[in-house]
Amino acid sequence: MEEPTNFLIAGATGGIGKALCEAIAIRYPDATLIRMARDPEKLMGLNCKTIDFSFDLADAHSLQQAMEKVPTDINIDWAFIATGWLHDETTQPEKTYKSLSAEQLAQSFNLNTIGPSLLVKHLLERNDRKHPLKIGVLSARVGSISDNRLGGWHSYRASKAALNMLIKNYAIELTRMKRPVVIVGLQPGTTDTSLSAPFQQGVPEGHLQTPEYTANKLVDVLGDLQLDDSGYLFDFLGEKFEP
Length: 243
Description:
With 243 residues, this protein is of the alpha/beta class. It is 35% helix and 16% strand.
C-alpha cells in the first residue's frame, strides 16, 4: 500500500486519540487529518490540514451524520477508532457478578461495541470500494476470552470480546468481497489516560506508558500490517494475540 495521505481519528480528544493526531501530524505533515470528537472545540491546532466534526458514539444517527460530512473527494487511507469506555464518575468496573446491571451492560456495549462497529460500517460505505484502507480499532487484551484468568470487569470484557468478533466478521466479509481493507483490533497497553487512571496503582514500575509512546507504537503497527493480517488482534508492539 502507498504512503497514506488521508487519515481519520475518532475519539480525537481522548488521551490516545489526541496523541495519535499529534503523531500523524509530525510524521505526515502533508496529510489531511479528519478528527471526530464529542467536543471539537477542545481540539488543538496541528501542523497539517485538519477537518473536524462532532459526533456522539452512543447515537447511531450522529455517527452517520458525521461520516456524511467527510468531503466526497476524500478517500480515507488509515482510520483509528480510538474510543472506549470503562468507568465514569458514578460507575466502576464490576468486580463480581453481583454488581451486574442492565444499565452498565448496555452502556458498555453501546460505547465499546455498537458505536465503533457502526462507525466502521459508515466508513466502508463512503470510501471507494477499490481504495486501500487500514482500520485500527482500539480493543483490549482483557477482552480476550482465551487470556481471561482473573474474571471481573464483566461488561467491559464482554463488550470488547464482542467487538473483537465483529472485527473478525468484517474481515471475513471484506475478503470475500475482494476489498483491499485491513481491519484489526489494537491493544494499546496500559497508557496514562483518564480510562486507566483509577487502576494505575498496581502497574509495575516502567510499565505505564505515555500516550505519545503508545500512539507512535500503534502508528508503527498499523503501517506494517498486510491484507493477511485483517481480522486479528495486535498489541502495541505488533505481537498478535488470541481472541
